[in-house]
Please model this.
Amino acid sequence: MSAQPQAILGIDIAKQTFQVALFYHEKFKHKAFENNSKGFDSHLSYVNPK
Model:
């Protein structure tokens, strides 16, 4: 018997943006971010909300 993953995260990096697809608790979310430090900070808040 194999363990099921708790979350699956896919990231596509482009020159000006990067896109994130998150499958978590049987729900799918997708969002695009700027490819800079502000975008990375937004991404961290997106995948790890407080």
Observations:
- The mean pLDDT is 88.
- The two ends are 33 Å apart (CA to CA).
- The chain has one domain: 7-47.
